[in-house]
Amino acid sequence: MADHTPRTPHETAAAAPPAGGPVDALTVEDIRAAHKMLSGVSRATAMEGSRYLSGLVGAPVHLKCENLQRTGSFKIRGAYVRIAGLSAEERAAGVVAASAGNHAQGVALAASLLGVRSTVFMPVGAPLPKVAATREYGAEVRLQGHVVDETLAAAQEHARETGAVFIHPFDHHDIIAGQGTVGLEILEQCPEVRTIVVGVGGGGLVAGIALAVKALRPDVKVVGVQAAGAACYPPSLAAGRPVAIEGLSTMADGIKVGRPGEVTFELVEKLVDEVRTVTENQLSSALLLCLERAKLVVEPAGASPVAALLADPESFEGPVVAVLSGGNVDPLLLQRTLRHGMAAGGRYLSLRLRLTDRPGALATLLGVLSAADANVLDVGHVRTDPRLGLTEVEVELQLETKGPAHCDELRAALREAGYFVTE
């Protein structure tokens, strides 16, 4: 059974300076102390090989399954270390956090395990399963704000009014030390690793992993991955300081962060070898691959390392470990993302074409598609449109296909049958 009693400063990573202190004060010894503290609290998650990705890369690829961690992501590690390091007076005041999902659940469970009252602010419209899970882990949930910045402001105001300790999602030494325990586990489970690929939002996970790994194995390359529509690190690294970006747009909510943290940026700049970006198509394709090939439910942010491997597999030196950081995906988002991934992989095809509006015309078209072995998912008719002739009807088709080559075969079959096709 886990021991949740307070530790002495020597036993905890709380001995590290506060978030604004020197980065050099945070060392691998703090991560080792965090690892010891987390024994019986967090899981040493599985490392699963991927035959498909290994074939693409030309070297072994392993998946570090933090999607199977308690609360469904790595966040419990840092949250527990941070809250465990609070003084008795700070614990009595409670803790507060702002999050749309993973950090919320990590703080809620960590606080409950340590007997600390927690309040978590979540955006209005946050996915209901995540709200319910956060409550079930013991937090008081308050829905406030329509965007994360508004929710964050509400949480910080609550901290000022009540004296509750604000638990930052990534920019604190104790948080980074806790997340860095993933790096220690990777070196234990895959000592031959040459490259570690990690999704990056604010940078707490990649900073912690890089700190642990570079201290023990400086030859191992650490590659960060961001969604192209929410990539704050490339411009920040180019400028040599944290830079805020606006207009964030990505399905990967877990790494949708507009500005790096001060502490995490310094560590990433110093220790991470490279930060790459991936597209929404690549993210959805990666999520689909994890589900179909690895039998793992992974959220888009957690699939970002796999997306990077799919985008340019030959550029990674193996053996490779890809960190699947979380699996808390809303079912509705999962449904949309899977359809998007199948479309990106040539497994869905949307077509529009015009028919003469006469009996049997649609049946003839469907016969062509049936002969080409396409599965018709949906058929839509447009009869009233000034672009159409008096005897014309436009048909919109949603087809399930077998891949890009099959899509080409379908288009060719329709053209041969005399149809003019647009997409």
Automatic annotation (TrEMBL):
It comes from Streptomyces tubercidicus. In the native structure, TdcB is in a dimeric form, whereas in the TdcB-AMP complex, it exists in a tetrameric form (dimer of dimers). InterPro entries: ACT-like_dom_sf (IPR045865), ACT_dom (IPR002912), ACT_ThrD-II-like (IPR044561), Ser/Thr_Dehydratase (IPR050147), Ser/Thr_deHydtase_PyrdxlP-BS (IPR000634), Thr_deHydtase_catblc (IPR005789), TrpB-like_PALP (IPR001926), TrpB-like_PALP_sf (IPR036052). Residues 1-10 have a biased composition (Basic and acidic residues). Residues 1-22 are annotated as: Disordered. It is an enzyme of class 4 (lyase). The keyword Amino-acid biosynthesis applies. GO terms for molecular function: L-serine ammonia-lyase activity; pyridoxal phosphate binding; threonine deaminase activity. Coiled coil: none annotated. Keywords: Allosteric enzyme, Amino-acid biosynthesis, Branched-chain amino acid biosynthesis, Isoleucine biosynthesis, Lyase, Pyridoxal phosphate. GO terms for biological process: isoleucine biosynthetic process; L-serine catabolic process; L-threonine catabolic process. It comes from the Bacteria. Residues 13-22 have a biased composition (Low complexity). This is L-threonine dehydratase catabolic TdcB. Belongs to the serine/threonine dehydratase family. Pathway: Amino-acid degradation; L-threonine degradation via propanoate pathway; propanoate from L-threonine: step 1/4; Amino-acid biosynthesis; L-isoleucine biosynthesis; 2-oxobutanoate from L-threonine: step 1/1. Its cofactor is pyridoxal 5'-phosphate. CDD domains: ACT_ThrD-II-like, Thr-dehyd. The keyword Membrane does not apply. Its EC number is 4.3.1.19.
